[in-house]
TrEMBL record:
<feature type="domain" description="Fe2OG dioxygenase">
    <location>
        <begin position="82"/>
        <end position="179"/>
    </location>
</feature>
<dbReference type="GO" id="GO:0031418">
    <property type="term" value="F:L-ascorbic acid binding"/>
</dbReference>
<keyword id="KW-0223">Dioxygenase</keyword>
<dbReference type="GO" id="GO:0016705">
    <property type="term" value="F:oxidoreductase activity, acting on paired donors, with incorporation or reduction of molecular oxygen"/>
</dbReference>
<keyword id="KW-0408">Iron</keyword>
<dbReference type="InterPro" id="IPR006620">
    <property type="entry name" value="Pro_4_hyd_alph"/>
</dbReference>
<dbReference type="GO" id="GO:0005506">
    <property type="term" value="F:iron ion binding"/>
</dbReference>
<keyword id="KW-0847">Vitamin C</keyword>
<keyword id="KW-0560">Oxidoreductase</keyword>
<dbReference type="Pfam" id="PF13640">
    <property type="entry name" value="2OG-FeII_Oxy_3"/>
</dbReference>
<dbReference type="InterPro" id="IPR005123">
    <property type="entry name" value="Oxoglu/Fe-dep_dioxygenase_dom"/>
</dbReference>
<dbReference type="GO" id="GO:0051213">
    <property type="term" value="F:dioxygenase activity"/>
</dbReference>
<protein>
    <submittedName>
        <fullName>2OG-Fe(II) oxygenase</fullName>
    </submittedName>
</protein>
<keyword id="KW-0479">Metal-binding</keyword>
<dbReference type="InterPro" id="IPR044862">
    <property type="entry name" value="Pro_4_hyd_alph_FE2OG_OXY"/>
</dbReference>
Amino acid sequence: MPQVFSAPAAFSPQDCAAITAMAAGAGLKHAGLVRGASSPDLRRAEIAWLDDMPGGAWVMDRLTGLMAEANRQTYGYDLTDFAESAQCACYRAETAGHFAWHSDIGAGALAAKRKLTLVVQLSDPASYDGGGLEIWPDSHVHHADRAQGTATVFPSFMLHRVTPLTAGMRWSLTLWAHGPAFR
Ligand SMILES: O=C(O)CCC(=O)C(=O)O
Ligand SMILES: [Fe+2]
């Protein structure tokens, strides 16, 4: 049975603050685009791509190292590359920011090749309410560790969601690892 992998304190609070500052500097755009149309029922968040953040190479180095470690310890998947930029997301209580149950594997050329999803909790859990990252690996829903800097890894086909923010703001950083599509 596939599992959820957790790396506590993968990033320090200072690292997390630096990443959110870079994301804000890169300019946030509304997310939740499905076939070119905004789909706020599915997702309400703003995003920025790590590839658009000058000086963000160290972040990608750390993320890829974490992904490799998770795959070595837990999954043993055939991974070939990181075909998409990591994505920083901001969910706000004012807009009830959320991401409804979904799988990260889609029909697009890149999304079809996603194998593992890694999500870093960039915010201090005392700074927001709601915004829980929940993953559904089996008959029980897994609540990802909310601690700032924790990295959570799971197979990209696994259903997961972010519950609506009810106070404050939550930042996350997501990276996908790619390989031959699951079959
Ligand atoms: O923000 C999160 O915690 C999850 C993001 C996510 O599921 C995604 O980008 O596909
Ligand atoms: Fe996702």
